[in-house]
Design brief:
Strand content: 25-35%
Radius of gyration: 16 Å
Strand order of the largest sheet: 8-9-10-7-11-13-12
Structural class: alpha+beta
Order of helices and strands: EEHEEEEEHEEEHEEEH
Helix content: 10-25%
Distance between the termini: 32 Å
Largest sheet: 7 strands, mixed
Number of strands: 13
């Protein structure tokens, strides 16, 4: 899956020690996992943004998200295709860190002076900071998530260190009786339900009830980080 942050082209992939099992589990959640022409494995279609599910390196036993970042070239593209059924948008990418200011500067490769306070993420036990997507064309914003308590984000940091850990999907949450979903919780992009992960450290999928709580809050929050 490709996105643009500033002048950085960001690609996020899902690594798994058992690609077929991961694809089957995501399909059971009602997500669109397809075989795409030219792809190295199945692809999770996130509102037209294909996320490759790839075999983890030999010896790795756990699923995780990984990211590759490079300077944006003229040929780089992060445009979305048609939305997958049940998913109306990719609201944000969650990036685990213990220092949002440092992590954002590291990703953008320039000092960040206007990092914004995006508010708490009670689903992951985090506090979020972020920048809006470039001109609204580069895809979803990246939320830099610092741990606020012991919880899913802290577990991900302890297991894998810093990097992408969560995808916020806009679309109708499942029924309340669905045990694969946790209770709604506040996040920077609206109330969301965390899909129970295969392991406590993720990767994490969060189903956002609507985008109306909304991506503009990332561009115009209460103020910059002090």
């Amino acid at each position: 899956m490709h996105a643009v942050v500033g002048d950085i082209a960001l690609r996020v992939d899902w690594l798994s020690p058992d690609v077929a099992a991961t694809a089957a589990r995501l399909r059971r959640l009602g997500l669109a996992v397809v075989e795409a022409s030219g792809a190295r494995g199945p692809v999770l279609d996130l509102a037209g943004r294909p996320l490759a599910i790839l075999a983890a390196p030999s010896g790795e036993r756990h699923e995780r998200l990984v990211a590759l970042a490079d300077r944006l070239s003229v040929s780089s593209s992060a445009s979305a295709g048609p939305a997958a059924p049940g998913v109306t948008g990719l609201a944000a990418i969650g990036w685990a860190t213990v220092d949002a200011q440092r992590a954002s500067a590291g990703l953008l490769r320039v000092p960040v002076v206007d990092l914004l306070d995006a508010g708490p993420d009670d689903a992951l036990g985090a506090h979020a900071y972020g920048l809006p997507a470039e001109d609204g064309e580069g895809g979803p914003p990246v939320l830099f998530l610092e741990p606020a308590r012991e919880g899913p984000l802290a577990a991900a940091l302890a297991r894998f260190g810093e990097g992408p850990v969560a995808l916020y999907l806009a679309g109708a949450p499942g029924p309340p009786a669905d045990r694969s979903l946790r209770a709604p919780a506040a996040t920077p992009v609206g109330a969301a339900r965390l899909v129970r992960p295969e392991r406590p450290w993720g990767p994490f999928l969060l189903l956002v009830g609507a985008l109306s709580t909304d991506r503009r809050s990332l561009a115009h929050p209460t103020g910059p980080v002090a």
